[in-house]
Specification:
The protein is α+β, with helices and mostly antiparallel strands and 439 residues long. The protein has 15 helices and 22 strands. The chain folds into three domains: 219 residues, HUPs (Rossmann fold, 3-Layer(aba) Sandwich); 72 residues, 2-Layer Sandwich (Uridine Diphospho-n-acetylenolpyruvylglucosamine Reductase, domain 3), CATH 3.30.465; 122 residues, 3-Layer(bba) Sandwich (Phenylalanyl-tRNA Synthetase, Chain B, domain 3). The strands form five sheets. The protein has a six-stranded mixed beta sheet with strand order 3-2-1-4-6-5, with helices on both faces. Helix 3 links the parallel strand 2 and strand 3.
Length: 439
Amino acid sequence: MQVELEEFIEAYKLFDRNDELILAVSGGADSVAMLHLLHDSGFRCSVAHCNFNLRGEESKGDQDFVSHLAQKLDLPFFTIDFNAQLYAEKSGMSIQEAARTLRYQWFGELHRARNALVLTAHHLDDHLETILINWSRGSGIRGSAGIPVQRLFLRRPMLGFTAAEIRNWCMENRIDFREDSSNTKDDYLRNHLRHHVIPAWKEKIPDLLSTSFRNSQLIRAQSENSEFHLNAFRSTHCVQDPFAFKIPIPEVLSFPHPSVLLYDLLNNYGFSPEVCAQMAGHLTDPNGARYISAHYEAYRDRGWILVYPHPINHTLTVRAPGSYSWNQFDLTIETIRMEGISLQQEPNSMIASSRSFQFPLHIRNWKEGDRMQPFGMAGHKLLSDIFTDLKIPVSVKRQIPIVCSDEQIIWIPTIKQAECTRVNAEDEFSWKFSFRFRP
């Protein structure tokens, strides 16, 4: 098994002997075998163990077992105690989801603290179980790819072996490990699949695990190719401006399956396949349809699908120069001396006369009836007319920050600066405003 493990590591270019490896060791056969195999192969290993305190003394026994094993092998040992039950209750997650979230958050902290790779001992049985669970949740092509061999700082060198192969190796080499009593129960879907569904399937297809792994690698490669083309479509045709993500409807309609393309583009915004299918079915309808996810809205307008956060009515008081946040925007106000300063305006910034206003300022949403005197104009103009001239949809107007001094509007970031902010020769210094959108 040791030779096969090293061949798997080399084939997938997981790590080399110069890398520091932090091995996630639960005490079970899989992770204990991984630890012994990599340690005996001369890799630079450390040991990490999470105690979720879900099984009382048994959990403490696992923690002590792994600690003694690390000490016996003279390896650095990291451990942490979690109250997974409390975290699940507060977050609304299941126990399994809560434990997984806590575990990987900690793994990320270890990775950043030590610039090390983190290894988990997932094997081929875990891999197939995960695929079946993903299918049951309707996760599409990404879920069909199963557990990745490597992702970010995570590596999974045991994906070349079955659970039976690992357990047999431990038995043959008299390697002690701990049995998790929760694995014998059928309370969770994963355990039911492990005890009942997959064994029956294996009887009909003896090489089921290895075949599913090979298929998943092909699916993952196809998924990565699709992601490559999706990114090309996003960068070539879509627009991310400070107020909305814009998808061109004619280009979407050129695809064989527009609803699938929309889901690929919008699933990170929380839109389900069903909503994307509904959206795709009405792409040629008149403007105005709105679709809702948990945190975003999508709106059809003038040949585009506009995606933007739910509007939040919020007024921010700015009492002095500094850095501030308003909804999805970051604002910085700083004092600059006028000597040698270019007055050429940039869309995301404004240079304003130090005499044009006094603090505090207020940043708020647009209101019906708002007016301003735009830079270079003699009179005032309704903001609604400015937005109409620029073909800004009603739905997007609600996202736009309005910067005011008392009741006077002095700036609409990326859109208009007020005439009253004009810098003149008598100004020794001015205010520089910078807005940054956080997509």
